[in-house]
Amino acid sequence: MKYHEPASGAEFVEYEFQEINDTIELQKQFAKTSVKELFATKGNRYRVMLAAALGIFSQFSGNAIIAYYLHTVLDQIGYTDQKQQNLINGCNSILSFFTGIAMALSVERVGRRPLFIFGSTAICLNVVAMTISSSIYTNTGAESAGRAMLAAVFLFGVFYSIAWGGLLYNYSLEIFPYNLRAKGFGLVFFIQSVFQFINTYVNPIAMANLNWKYYIFYCIWDGFEAIFVYFFFIETKGVALEEIAKIFDGDDALVGGGLEMTRKEMELHGVKDVYSHVEYVNDA
User: In what residue span(s) does the Major facilitator superfamily (MFS) profile domain sit (predicted)?
Assistant: First the structure.
């Protein structure tokens, strides 16, 4: 009830019944959707751009180096004992896990956009710190630089969990309308897989030949990510899934039940405005 105030009693029942009617009607008429609808409208193309960014940024922020080549990173800064490396890896994973839980509990209070901006900016600054400390240790062997690099590794896991952990999947589902949600979510996963493939073959070669200098690439790239997030990511906090279509499509968005579509999308299907032939409760 609290999510539908001020509706209550009979008004609440009528509202819910009408929403069900609209949803059923739209589901009948949109039983099939094609991939081309992802690019059919300006709003959908914007969604695809965000989906591509989510897929790329979540796999290409330097996280693959920490996840798959942590032992190499630790070797570079003097932590060569296997037991010590396992302990560091375990502690880092646990810290990232609890950070993800904290993010999930705070996302509705803080909002998506602030978390994305903070996380991506912090990742960029942290990678800069990793680059500097690793460079100093390589050139001087200073233990303080090695410890600074280790601290940066732990902080990277924290910042990554904030920006590209569970929030990634939550946001991916929110930005797409019901009829395109599965395809949009699949697009994010496809792009993730492509960049996982790239990481698999590029990172080992780059790490072996460039050592700490390879981090410079991520300093630049993560800076681009932070700028992109700031200018293009849209806030969806406090907006019902049925209403998010209006953020992307403006006045052209048609909202009914759980399905949000633009008039242009409806024209592609040869469907009339659902509100012109759905029988309303008050008219029954």
Answer: 48-284
